[in-house]
Write a structure and sequence with these properties.
Blueprint (H helix, E strand, L loop, with lengths): L1 H13 L1 H20 L15 H12 L9 E7 L9 H15 L4 E5 L13 E8 L8 H16 L3 E5 L12 H17 L2 H29 L3 H31 L4 H28 L7 H32 L27 H11 L1 H16 L7 E2 L11 H13 L7 E6 L6 H13 L4 E4 L3 E2 L5 E8 L6 H21 L2 E5 L1 H35 L3 H26 L15 E2 L2 H29 L4 H28 L7 H33 L8 H6 L23 H9 L1
Parallel strand pairs: 5-11
Antiparallel strand pairs: 1-3, 1-4, 2-3, 6-9, 6-10, 7-9, 8-9
């Protein structure tokens, strides 16, 4: 592989105009597609095989005009201080608003608060339920504007009015912190390379790669039902790995220049060695992200595949466009150890010959491996303690910022009708096989009324055929609480007994039940997913490192870092530690997809640092150095770059903590803290300590396995047979073959 990538690097360096034109054309094509594509909406939670989904599908069949997947809105009214919603003037304002809402072209029904018993017991709060023909993703802007205008007219009449539901779902904003993250990345690159030009290349290629990836996602959003969160997460991951992959190749290029090689030869060798590591690091990330499809939740599958596609683009750009840009730069990119004049180049170092920080740190770890290992493991173990109390759920309007009308509507409904009113359960009774359907409907309602944590059970509403009915159940507790989850399971348990008595089926659905089923599906899939991803990556790393113990150590170190990161997420978002600093307005259960998503993404990113750092050690060991010296050599050449890469990735992920969407905020924080733990504690401390303790045994591989494995030559051993002086020309036939490839 190293030899093939070497040729690719030289070809891209020489044919830089052609390479640059291809990537600019792809960016333009994706941008045009995105510009003319319909806007993305919020991805729906469809979970095949779950009870909530089965009930939802049954409603579509038995209640064809119900528009079960249609958008909903709750317009909540609160009377001025000292007044009640039943006062003549306030009632007139509400009825005028209801009439205005019914005039919408996409509205199927509007429930009047005064005829539908939707006024609170103290008379101060009322609400009108609005049902639309289409989903929130398909709702036209004119319908949303009409909803806002109707609410404003009621406000003008003196009422407090807020709107909840998914009809006004908005695109999340990441805020200025994302820009700050990019600015930090730029500063780190300048410090690392000592050159503005060299620092600009990783940023430029990462932005182009993310631009292509996100624009493609936007262009396909309507066709593939991709939500706004999909593009946000793809940009988050694509930007981080794009900068890192380019950083490693530019760094290796400067190291090759420092050894006296010409530009084209240096570019070829940089892509052949560091590029090989980029390919395998990218493969581990892609495996982890595509592997999310085993969970069988369409939204998560789409997010994973979209992010994996962006990572693949980042790898390809790093391998081709970086050497092309280096060809344009020529001698303006300085060899390693030299800075541009603008940043202090040409000055005599204060302490010539002094080992760099990476060398000094690795030497310290090699001398005291046991102490460093124990300190690292105990520290991560302490950080992981909060993960033992992890509670999972999905965000609702109660997790929105208090500045949003959805959150204020949620709070008003809780105040007037109780917290459970924001998450009603819909019980579907399928009595098609029953001889007495009406009796079955009554039996179900009576059984549910006897359960704990139930406030209201509405009378059954049957369809035209009279064989299916819906019953609305209002819990006492808020939608995301453990008590409400227990109530859902209790109703389902009762349903099993009712089925035996009446030959009818009882199914529980609704947003709350759907969220509970999502959490259960994710919990059940976590261990199989972990086994699949870690297993595949373990086999891949055996091929890369030609060792059994090094990949095993890499996997165990990852488990430590991801558990510590989950502990930090629980401490902030569930317990409320530092919630003010993170702008977390409402603590509660951790998003149910967070553990499995972190496992996928963090494993891929963790293996990046493992590959980049340990391949340098492997390279030194293969070339004859002793195991302990190889560890120090690996840190001498790789620690500075890996540190810079980790700081950049942390800065990029931290930028998404400023998002207005709770899910994006939590993922941004979780990934940032996970990278910190993995890069600076696991890879920088635990890994060298373990390798120092293992010695030659770290690189042990059974002879039969060594013969069976393909030789991918990540260390670039095959390049040693090439002339160090650098070849001026490439064989024309070879060049044409590479262009066609």
């Amino acid at each position: 592989m190293a030899t093939f990538l070497y040729k690719i690097g030289r070809l891209a360096f020489r044919r830089r105009h052609f390479v640059a034109l291809i990537w600019v054309a792809l960016l333009t094509l994706a941008g045009v597609g995105a510009a003319f594509a319909p806007a993305a909406g919020n991805t729906s939670f469809s979970i095949p095989g779950t009870e909530a989904q089965k009930a939802f599908d049954l409603l579509e069949q038995r209640f064809p005009g119900m528009s079960a997947d249609g958008a909903t809105a709750r317009v909540v009214f609160k009377a001025p201080s000292g007044e009640k919603m039943t006062d003549e003037a306030d009632k007139a304002a509400v009825e005028k608003t209801v009439k205005e809402l019914r005039s919408g072209s996409e509205v199927t029904s509007v429930a009047d608060p005064y005829t539908g018993h939707a006024v609170s017991a103290n008379g101060t709060i009322a609400y009108a339920s609005v049902k639309y023909k289409v989903s929130g993703m398909e709702l036209e802007d004119s319908s949303k504007d009409a909803l806002k205008e109707a609410a404003q007219h009621a406000r003008d009449a003196g009422l407090t009015v807020e709107v909840g539901g998914d009809a006004l779902s908005a695109t999340p904003e990441t805020g200025s912190s994302e820009v700050i993250g990019l600015a930090i990345a730029a500063v780190v690159l300048v410090i690392t390379f000592g050159s503005l030009l060299a620092a600009g290349f990783p940023l430029l290629t990462a932005i182009i790669g993310v631009g292509i990836g996100v624009s493609t996602i936007t262009a396909l959003a309507s066709t593939l039902d991709l939500g706004t969160t999909t593009s946000t997460l793809a940009s988050m991951i694509g930007l981080a790995v794009g900068i890192d992959y380019a950083l490693f190749i530019v760094s290796r290029y400067r190291a090759e220049l420092a050894e006296g090689r010409e530009g084209e030869e240096a570019a070829g060798r940089a892509v052949g060695t560091a590029g090989s590591a980029v390919v395998f690091a990218g493969l581990t990330v892609v495996i982890a992200l595509v592997g999310l499809s085993v969970v069988d939740i369409p939204m998560l599958t789409k997010m994973g595949i979209a992010a994996a596609g962006t990572v693949a683009i980042a790898v390809l750009i790093a391998l081709t466009m970086i050497p092309a840009l280096l060809g344009y730069a020529g001698r303006k990119v300085k060899p390693a150890g030299q800075k541009s004049k603008l940043l202090g180049g040409g000055r005599t170092p204060k302490k010539p010959g002094r080992p760099n920080m990476g060398t000094r740190w690795a030497s310290f770890v090699v001398r005291r491996p046991v102490a460093v290992l124990l300190l690292g493991v105990l520290g991560l173990g302490a950080a992981a303690i909060p993960a033992a109390s992890l509670e999972l759920g999905l965000p609702d309007d109660g997790s929105q910022p208090t500045s949003t009308t959805q959150r204020r509507a949620y709070d008003l409904l809780s105040e007037g009708f109780g917290p459970g009113f924001n998450g009603p359960l819909m019980v579907v009774v399928d009595a098609k096989g029953s001889d007495h359907p009406k009796a079955a409907f009554t039996e179900v309602g009576d059984e549910i009324k006897g359960l704990k944590d139930v406030v209201t059970v509405t009378p059954a509403v049957a369809n035209k055929a009279g064989d299916t009915a819906t019953i609305t159940v209002v819990p006492k507790s808020k939608p995301s609480s453990k008590t409400t989850e227990d109530l859902v399971h209790a109703i389902r348990d009762k349903g099993a007994g009712i089925t035996a008595k009446t030959d009818s089926k009882v199914l529980v659905t609704g947003t709350t039940a759907m969220n509970i089923d999502v959490s259960q599906r994710l919990n059940d899939a976590l261990l199989p997913y972990l086994a699949l991803v870690v297993g595949l990556a373990f086999l891949l790393l055996i091929v890369v490192f030609r060792s059994v113990l090094v990949p095993l150590k890499a996997a165990l170190g990852f488990l430590l870092s991801v558990m510590a990161a989950l502990g930090a997420v629980v401490a902030v978002f569930q317990w409320g530690w530092l919630s003010g600093l993170m702008n977390v307005e409402q603590t509660g259960p951790v998003m149910s997809m967070m553990p499995i998503f972190m496992v996928g993404v963090v494993f891929g990113l963790a293996m990046d640092y493992e590959v980049f750092l340990v391949t340098r050690m492997r390279e030194a060991f293969v070339h004859g150095e002793k195991p302990s010296q190889a560890v120090v050599t690996g840190f001498k050449h790789g620690a500075r770059v890996v540190t810079a890469a980790a700081v950049i990735m942390i800065a990029v992920f931290s930028g998404f903590i400023g998002s207005t969407e709770a899910m994006v905020k939590m993922i941004g924080f979780g990934l940032a803290i996970a990278v910190f733990f993995d890069a600076f504690i696991v890879r920088m401390a635990i890994v060298p300590a373990v390798l120092a303790l293992l010695g030659k045994r770290a690189w042990w591989l059974p002879k039969w396995l060594d013969r069976a494995l393909p030789n991918v030559d990540v260390e670039g051993e095959g390049l040693r047979t090439l002339s160090d002086s650098g070849r001026k020309d490439t064989d024309p036939d070879e060049e044409r073959e590479l262009v066609r490839a």
